[in-house]
Amino acid sequence: MATENxxxxxxxxxxxxPIVRIKLNTPPLKCIxxxxxxxxxxxxxxxxxxxxxxxxxxxxxxxxxxxxxNGDENVFDIGDITNLIPSIKREKLYNIKDLKRITGxxxxxxxxxxxxxxxxxxxxxxxSILSLYxxxxxxxxxxxxxxxxxKNGTHVHxxxxxxxxxxxxxKSLPDDEMRFSMMANFFTSNGFKGEVLKIVCEIRxxxxxxxxxxxxxxxxxxGDEIIAIGGVILIENGKVKVHVIKPSLAKIPLQSEKELxxxxxxxxxxxxxxxxxxxxxxxxxxxxxxxxxxxxxDRNQGGHYHIDTEPNTIKxxxxxxxxxxxxxxxxxNFML
Length: 336
Hints:
The chain is mostly beta strands. The protein contains 5 helices and 19 strands. One of its GO terms (cellular component) is nucleus.
């Protein structure tokens, strides 16, 4: 895409940024099943959790870049919300390829939620009025790197205006566009098939979203021990609430995350929809985003997952790998 007369910041080298690595005491999958199932049944009319062989996730409806979620599993938290508050830090531009050197994994599969690569859309460092909307976009990361080869199935969603009825635009990234910005929550692995957690929940009777219910159950059972999982969710029945960021965020100074909440446009996604992301049970003081999923559909719609809006018909099916390591990159010096 042409980016003439644009002044973009250089991509940061994540290997040169502050990195905190935490080796995790990963419990057996059957122990996680036992830990979360009672809480799932408290929040959903029907719920199951079991250990299964991962299905081929390259097939519809998932369409991921690799078959499975196994091998050298890691969860990454990169940047954070302070890169948007009090104003957008456009210099926070990262490259997915750096994760290959950090993990040493080959192949390396990356799935999860992040802010997209705004320079790809031709937004200059001053963010002109006509191109403001391109600066604020939500990315559904879906990448596989094998040697020097890249398979990029990443989706990007953005709003054209602050109008609630404005079009939600969709773009697919080419194989050579590996940047993202501001913040990210990624699950990485070799993408091998193997045993994973399968969680199915239907008919929500409690107040918690699918991801919140899982996270709170993990925290309740494991306490200060960090359990980090990542994977893919299929919403088979029922609509879900997602948000896409309003373009005016690029120009309005913010004082808190609460104010940021006023600059999102909520929309409903009809089924089926698919989400990728991570859940971390406990924050040891690193200013983490403990759950983060971005959704996409085959109708070119998507956004940041909040909760279902049709609890009487909702059905979630999730497949998750459990991380052996948690990595925080580019932690801010202050917390909101």
